[in-house]
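The passage that follows is intended for readers who have already worked through the single-chain material. We present the inputs for a multi-component assembly, then the predicted structure in tokenized form, and finally a short commentary. You are encouraged to pause after the input and sketch how you expect the pieces to fit together before reading on.
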Amino acid sequence: MSELELRQTTVDAEAAHDREWARRGRPRAGTVIAGAFVVLLLAATAFPAFVATQDPNAISAADAFQPPSTAHWFGTDESGRDIYSRIVAGTGTSLLIGVTATVIGLALGLLLGVLASFGGRVVDFGVGRLVEVLFAFPGLLLALLVIVVAGPGPVTATIAVGLSTAPGYARIIRGQLVSIRSSQYVEAARVLGRPPRRILIAHLLPNALLPLVVLGTLGIGQAIVWAAALSYLGLGAQPPAAEWGAMLSAGRTYLQTAWWMTVFPGLAIVGTTIATTVLGRALARRERGAR
Amino acid sequence: MTANGADAVLELEELRVAFGHEEVVRGVSLTIAPGECVAIVGESGSGKSVTARSLLGMAGEGARVEAERLRIAGRDLRGAGEREWRRVRGRQAGLVLQDALVALDPLRPVGREIGDALRIHDRMPRGARRTRTLEVLADVGMPDPAAAVNRRSGELSGGLRQRALLASALVLDPPLLIADEPTTALDATVQARVLELLAEISGRGTAVLLISHDLAVVARLADRVLVMREGRVVEQGTVDEVLGAPSEPYTRALIAAVPAEVPRGALLSSEGSPVIAHPERVPIAPRAVSRGESADVPLLAFDGVVKTFPNRGGGRFTAVEEVSLAVHAGETVGLVGESGSGKTTLARLALALTTPDRGVVTLEGEPWSELGERERRPRRRRIGAIYQDALSSFDPRWNVGRILADAAGGQAANDAGARHPSRANTARRVAELLDQVGLAGGVAVREPLTLSGGQRQRVAIARALAAAPEILVCDEPVSALDVTIQAQILDLLDELQRERGLAMLFISHDLGVVRHMADRVAVMQAGRIVETGPAERVFAAPGHPYTARLVADAPRLAR
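Having made your guess, compare it with the prediction:
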């Protein structure tokens, strides 16, 4: 093999390497569909009147228990309200509960995690045990406990779900911070003479927090399901409100005669959870690809 | 010695292995006779390991293996199913891998791991199994086999573990032993013992297929050598033919890149010369900074430094014991020693990432280890670091340009209040740095993960240079690189040092690399420096028995 060929094969190999990286950056079909669904959800949240076909709270006794048709895409409920429009109207509530609960969980987790990793050995021990105690309760049970103390309602349900997800986030954040602090790139920054404050801002926080955004996206789906479960039990949003879990609960009485009253809100919950999870996973893949 | 087809243990013709559309082995043929040792050498990605694994039906998930002939001990194995391969493994062909810690089950005593083969293949009763296990452990030179059978792999030292793994490969007395990088993870002295053992095994009539990236290991053990590159055998012949008088440019480049016994200042890589076919070395002009000029005040000095760490028993483990060592301006001090001898702790002390229990480290005659971090920080730019694993020393979210811009930012980056240099200035500085380490400007937008090992190390060097340090601490900077890439990086370090009069503390377990790079050498053993002196003198006439053993055990290429 001549020197020229040697060089050429190296160049070819590098070009192939580059192509491989370009290919990985392209999103999968599932991600695109999930993204489109989330865009739809956001549209329903921002302009419910535009996306809905009718007034979600317009009562019409004559239209009660209509099966799905061109006039009522997802049918109507016992008061003749349009299910599709109610699902659209409930999107904002469900997403808000899901996102707010996750943000509460993440914020609390971040606080505990940062305390544990920077507060010294005693604080670390204390936070560790507290998290373990919280972990000992199943998440939903912990949420129920909060509601028993604070009373039912959408706001307490949101806070309850947020609280019950916090221990998991706290543990992950602490682990991230501890491992990043002893990483070689933080050491390299110290060797370059970077002060602790700058290392915190430039290296520690971005590397610990960005994986958390991924985790949060995955968590939104779970939070929506939990919030819906609490509403279904009558502990979250109350029945007249167009909330998916509350709609499920209202429809269960008529499950045998009017299946559309439960199936479509149920599909909305499932669809939203799957879409946010698929997006979260796509983010996680990118995240792994970046390191 | 060339095997003829009739009594060869391994007969392989036109082996082709493909994963999907990518063919990684493209027509490899080889035969091995009883008692013969054949080596395959090549760099990572050459297909040597896939070739070896295909001989055991273990090429991997989704591999398509084809061959015109594939016989082990006369048995045709083309298209063999998993059941048939299982009968072959252990019985017809034993396998030894690089890392025995991974290859042996950590939860089971090694005696049981070795006995497994006897139980599965021969259904041998327990008593006979034990006898044979002890026998084979004695064969591989395990001290006190009766005690060793009850140990788990994690309780054995690296060398003994590798012996246990060899024993498990040899317990059924297979006619063929496949050894894939069997000594790569071992220290030089341990490596020498394991190589002797492999030679002995081959001497008893076992055919050995040795896979290695290390030409010196091959030279010591093999009868014949195949050089692989991109799935093809580019050259083959006896060890003397291939390593003594290579005919292929690629083989010549490989051999030339081995730094052992290449004088200080000679280029290792053939980079830059239009044709590799010039084996002559180009001497580099004498260094700009003469040694000893500022000999009175060393740039970096250790004085009676002691560093201990708490160990599990509640006591303290002494990593560095009473070390005194000085590095002067423009000088390279090589630090050699086996793993666990305290080299890396010394590097961390030099970088003030850890403080000594006793003794002091000084930088340009001024206190260094005794300073508070706040006083030390502004002076940190004087001392730079290059690590073995460049990738993990980069923030995973930063691209090359940002890494270098951050390093070049220097003081501005440290004082948040100071005015930051303009964007254009920074971009120019990054391009300059990339150019100095021989990288194209386009690399600035790449993520380190997408770069090759050699490119990553170049970026690491550029980052270290960005702050214009006076001394570089290099901890095993080329240990993870292929030999031709290693040569380029060593040449680069050499050139940069010459241009800038940099001092270097150069740490490596590879005596050849240190001998090539260092002006003076310090030999570390169990935390102590047992010998220091000019590199040539220390390696040619070691003054301490430990140094003598290290030098004797280091595999080398006869040139």
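Commentary: Residues 6-11 of chain A have pLDDT under 50 and may be disordered. Chain A has one domain: 49-290. How closely did your sketch match?
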